[in-house]
Amino acid sequence: MNPKNSVGWILLLLFQCGPLTNAEKALELANSHLLPTGGHRKLINVHAEGYPRDCSEIFKQSEENSKDGLYVIQPAKEPIAVYCNMQDGGWTVIQHITANSTVDFDRTWQDYKYGFGSIDDNYWLGNEYMHQLTSSPTPYTLRIKLVDLNAEIKWGEYEPFHIESESSQYRIRLGLYRGSAIDALCQDTEAYLHDNQKFTTKDRDNDNYFQNCAKLEYNGIAGGGWWYDACAGANLNRKNVIYWQQDCNKTHMCKYAWMMVRPVDYHRDCSKVCPSQKDEL
Ligand SMILES: *[C@@H]1O[C@H](CO)[C@@H](O)[C@H](O)[C@H]1NC(C)=O
Ligand SMILES: *[C@@H]1O[C@H](CO)[C@@H](O)[C@H](O)[C@H]1NC(C)=O
Ligand SMILES: [Ca+2]
């Protein structure tokens, strides 16, 4: 190790091992199991008071100057930690997968309910928190972002997007579509229509197939939890093949996928607020 590096390491250790602030100590996250190593220190907005309900609020409060990273939000009673994609405009990331990463997406109902993985890496935020986030009086938009092996980016948005409660098996409700990707969640009306489907996991079969879609394997890897029909025109939770019809499949491989949410009125709010802020200057 060269001397410059060891100084860096010592500084890093000092920084990481200093005492926790009172706010850090007091912070109780409902999803602390999704924190990476280094935990609370990696959260950008730890303070004493209540937290914003999602990343778009943080982005707006910072006058669109906040950076991507780990933040605390409070969509309902309990604060949770999430990854905020600020570069794309204040989006709360609810799913991220890297093809062939070590994070296992072949999980139970309970795991999909409260989330798994690590918020600075691949993760599923949890159906319960997706339900909380999308149950505000203002409707939410779902944004899908796909990156193929040539680093080409495609995206799609459903507006509105709502995940119902557990008593409705976290059913998905999707509105109008726009984007450069195919409308893979709503396009097929025969057996691959994901809109209005309940969530299925390997231990809870709510799909429309004679077997459990979440258990069907491709090259030894099961499909993971999803809003299956019989079975899928899209599935972002099978870790060896990110599937989105012609945009991402086993012949046209994708490397990354994200699912993220933001209130539908984000821009409308801004068009009201932003010009008046300028007037005041
Ligand atoms: C996979 O994607 C390719 C390229 O877009 C397309 O030609 C092919 O039909 C797709 N395969 C499936 C099974 O959807
Ligand atoms: C994932 O791993 C499989 C098996 O090793 C490989 O065929 C495939 O190309 C990999 N996918 C990506 C996107 O790298
Ligand atoms: Ca079934």
TrEMBL record:
Keywords: Signal
Listed GO CC annotations: extracellular space
Family annotation (InterPro entries): Fibrinogen-like_C, Fibrinogen_a/b/g_C_1, Fibrinogen_a/b/g_C_dom, Fibrinogen_C-term_domain
Superkingdom of origin organism: Eukaryota
Leader sequence residues: 1-23
Domain Fibrinogen C-terminal as annotated: residue spans: 46-265
Entry keyword Iron-sulfur: no
NCBIfam families the UniProt entry points to: GGGWT_bact
Annotated protein name in UniProt: Fibrinogen C-terminal domain-containing protein
